[in-house]
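Handout, section 3.2

Students often ask what a structure token actually looks like in practice. Rather than define it abstractly, here is a full record for Integral membrane protein. The first block is the sequence as you would receive it.
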Amino acid sequence: MDLTVIAYIVYLLISVALTIWVARTLSRNGRIFLADVLHGNEKLAEAVNHLLVVGFYLVNFGFVALYLSQDEAVLDARALFEALSVKLGVVLLVLGVMHLGNVYVLNKIRRRGVMEREQVPPVGPQGWTTTPKAGPWAPPAPQG
């Protein structure tokens, strides 16, 4: 069998396994984060998590397939390892960049939600609060 074909097979096996492992890890650990971002809505968090995993698979498997071709024939074991290291290194970088992009976007959404929760006033816009009659925070009573 040609060493180029062996390089393709090893590249595909490792790339697919890495993509599946990263997607499962992100999915399992991202559920809690998504539930917080989505204010505890577990069903919505699960749906968004599933959609993110599907998108992750599509983009990464598409990239792995497009990056499969080899310009030069692999003639010896050294060239085989060099070709695999370059291809797998690029796949790992793409996986990492996608992960960081997802975390960045979800963190921005989470921050916005936290800021919105903090801006809600304790009393409705038409409500009144009573001033305390006594205490260290109350203004002193007029002397007269």
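Discussion prompt for tutorial groups: The chain has a mean pLDDT of 82. How would you have guessed this from the sequence alone?
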